[in-house]
Amino acid sequence: LSSIVELNVGGEMYTTMLSTLKKHPGSKLAEMFTGQPKLRTDSEGRFFIDRPGTYFKYILEYLRSNQVPTQCVQDVYKEALFYDIEPLIKQLEDSPQIFGELVARKQFLAHVPNYSENIELMIRIARAEAVASRQSSVIVCVVRTEEDAARCQDALNSLDMDKKSVVKFGPWKAVPSISDLLDCIQMDIEAKGYKISCQPHTAEKGFRFKSHDFFYRFLFTWW
Questions:
Q1: Nearest by Cα to 124 from 217, 189, 171, 181
Q2: What single-letter DSSP state applies at residue 41?
Q3: 49: pLDDT confidence band, cut at 50, 70 and 90?
Q4: In what order do the strands lie in the sheet with 135-142?
């Protein structure tokens, strides 16, 4: 291999030193250029990597100068994981963006039973009710404690609706509040490309409990 390497990363062109790419010998990126190159070339003879080229410049900048990126941190982190550049991964995990996501938010959500499955269930219900409609809604029951779960079940039995369409979250043993969980639900559904809003769900008169203590309506807007 020449000491100067030309790359085509997802359509973005880069020129760098071979030593730069091999700076961290244990990384996947270094292995791509160790011994016989393990990459295909494009029509111009440049080594082709089928990854987002936009963020590769931040990877190169780190390899060249040890500068940890402060822009597009989430996306650069994904690329650092792909290229298996361990020092960059660790430094990015100390950044506020990644630390907050991995250590704070995801650790909290790990304490909420069936969180990911319930997110997918909400989306399926909303899509099923979206036929010939601009909006569809999903009722969510959120309980933080076992005591609230029992009270919620009594309240659920009083609801005048198909109970199978109510998605239940909780209880959980962690500091974050119900409003924190509602924010997480909205954040993760919006991350999938959906436009949603959330508001307390008010039941009919004569309801045994304050319905807004447990029930919330997530409104999906389709157009």
A1: 189
A2: B
A3: very high
A4: 166-169, 135-142, 215-221, 195-200
Rounded to whole angstroms, the Cα distance separating 42 from 11 reads: 10
Strand, coil or helix: 178: helix
Please, what's the b/e burial string for 73-83 (b: 16 or more CB within 10 A of its CB; e: otherwise)?
A: beebbebbeeb
pLDDT, tens digit (0-9, with 9 covering 90-100), for 143-186: 999 888 887 777 777 665 555 678 999 999 989 999 999 999 99
Report the interhelical angle of 56-65 vs 73-83 (nearest 10°): 70
- Predicted structure pTM score: 0.74
- Per domain, the residue ranges of the chain are 4-94, 113-221
Q: Is 169 helix (H, G, I), strand (E, B) or coil?
A: strand
Domain 4-94: CATH architecture, name and number where available: 2-Layer Sandwich (3.30)
